[in-house]
Amino acid sequence: MLSVNGLESGYGRARVLFGVSLEVGPGQLVCVMGRNGVGKTTLLNTVMGVLPATAGTVTFDGADVTRLKPHERVRLSMGYVPQGHQCFPQLSVLGNLLVTVEAAKQPKEAIDEALDLFPALRPLLKRSAGHLSGGQQQQLAMARALVTRPRMLILDEPTEGIQPSIILEIEAAIERLHAAGLPVLLVEQYLDIALRLADTFVILDGGHVVRTGAAEDLHQEDVRKLLAV
Amino acid sequence: MTAFLNQLPIGLSIGAVLMLIALGLTFTFGQMGVINMAHGEFIMAGAYTAFLLQDMVLALPAAFLVAGVMGLILERSAIRHFYGRPLDTLLLTWGVSLVLQQLARDLFGAPNVQVPAPAWLSGGVGILPYNRLFIMGLAVAGVVAVWLYLTRTGLGRRTQAVVQNRQLAATSGIDTGRVDMLTFFIGSGLAGVAGVALTLIGPVGPALGTYYIVDAFLVVVAGGLGQLRGAVLAALGLGLLNSYAEFWSDASLAKVIVLAAVIAFLQVRPQGLFVLRSRVLT
After folding, report:
1. In a domain, B21, yes or no
2. B162 falls within a domain
3. pLDDT block averages, 10 residues each, chain A of length 229
4. B278 is a domain residue
5. Which residues cross the membrane (chain B) (predicted)?
6. Superfamily of domain A2-87+153-227
7. Interface test with A, best of B228, B279, B282 (most A CBs within 10 A)
8. At a CB cut-off of 8 Å and minimum separation 6, what does B248 contact?
9. Chain B residues in contact with A89 (beta carbon < 8 A)
10. How much is the pTM?
11. Which of A187, B96, B179, B193 has the fewest CB atoms within 10 Å, measured from its CB?
12. Which residues in A46-59 are b (16+ Cβ under 10 Å) and which e?
């Protein structure tokens, strides 16, 4: 579904990624792990076109998207939830969803489908998104990605800085989407969540892929060492 | 007391003109981080459009189009290559502003020209002359139109999204380049309308825009970037302060007083009257 080949990128003269390759097959959930500052967010931002790739390619569903703008990738149905439960703070919750559904040229029913997965948002539709709690904003962020009717989800630390009860809801939602056959590329810090959700994992260190494997392998001693702070 | 009251429509109409100018600026500055010094010349272009047409009713839409298209050309041909480089855009647009002023001098001559006010705008009710009332009405209509556009249309919602979080807008499927283009067109067009309004209260010259551009930037900074209500309140405040400071002192001292007031205000509220607020991880 998504294949990343020899991807390099960075910020100005500071290179962050040095030839990262990974593969997300149909229906697969791949978890990208690694300590802080190893390039996980940079990788996702480059996959989505927020940062330009200086070398390498990104192929989505057979099409080379390396040079496409972010909105063009969204219209090819790559769904992205960036880090830090971001929203459009002065728009209402419904406004956040509407603006996305219109931009992605999807029918309004997509909003209802997304709200079915996050029913906690229904009573909040008229509230300003900026006034929600972090957990509610993260659910809104995921709902916003879903209204674009993505054929793949790219999630950057959806559980970061969020209260435990809502982490469980978000994990359940990811599980349901994955079970329904949606491929997911997930950056996740919590090892236990990665263990429960992932089919395969990729560990980054210093902008390189240092280890890949099936979720079971995450128990191995050398893998744990790569993740230990 | 009458002299004091007579100053009120003057202050309000200056505020109204500033409002029209700042509406565009607050979005180009707030949304794209572009310090567009050539915005003043769109005012001038609107005023000369009124001079050429000599018809207030025709001049309003025509000036909107002329100034809007000028803004569009400037954004597409030059500014968009300099996004994220505010100092370079400042120099670039300042240069464009000088070129446009010289162009106006070559086309229309250096001396000021007059646009005769239409007969139906002479006279007034009480202390309110019709021409000042008309300008205030124009500003109200402009603000209402922009507000309706922002809150009631899909394009306006997309504009708000880009102002509030550009990167998230792009990764939500919004073509930010197109939104920028459209915002520039509308903002520049409103400056053209402001130019038409100015022909009702003074002569038109090539340097018309330079008298208002600095005040308009003060409005934008004091009101908060990309904030409609901020621009409205700050424009009214600055317009009134300007005219009363002139009334109590003189024109040049008034400028000093206004600038000092804005600086003092920004010491207390550096973010302006209104500001985007959200819980975001830091």
Report:
1. yes
2. yes
3. 93 90 94 91 95 94 94 95 93 96 93 94 94 93 95 94 90 94 93 90 91 83 77
4. no
5. 12-35, 47-74, 86-104, 130-150, 182-204, 216-241, 253-270
6. P-loop containing nucleotide triphosphate hydrolases (3.40.50.300)
7. B279
8. none
9. 164-165, 276-278
10. 0.86
11. B96
12. bbbbbbebeebebe
Look up residue A88 and give its amino acid: F
CA distance A12 to B201: 51
Under an 8 A CB cutoff, do A102 and B158 touch?
yes
Span B74-83, average pLDDT: 90
| Number of folded domains that form chain B | 1
Which of A65, A75, A86 to substitute to test the interface with B, most B CBs within 10 Å? Answer: A86
pLDDT digits (tens, 9 = 90+) for B104-140: 999 999 999 998 888 888 888 878 889 999 999 999 9
In a domain, B281, yes or no: no
The CATH number of residue B97's host domain is 1.10.3470
Residue reference for tokens 């997509």: A110
For chain B, give me the number of helices (H) and strands (E)? 11, 2
Between CA B57 and CA B54 the distance in angstroms is: 9
**For A100, phi and psi rounded to 5 degrees?**
-75, -45
* Cα–Cα separations (whole angstroms), residue A99 to A93, A203, B31, B247: 10, 35, 17, 48
- Half-sphere exposure in the Cβ direction for A172 (13 Å, CA): 10
Domain locations in chain A? Answer: 2-87+153-227
Q: How far apart are CA A89 and CA A205, in angstroms?
A: 34
Alpha carbon distance B44, B24 (integer Å): 15
**Rounded CA gap, A65 and A52, in Å?**
11
> Between vectors from CA B130 to CA B127 and to CA B131, what angle results, nearest 5°?
115
CB–CB of A87 and B175 under 8 A? no
Contact yes or no for B47/B212 (Cβ under 8 A): no
Position B6 scores a pLDDT of: 83
**Band of pLDDT at residue B280, cut at 50, 70 and 90:** very low
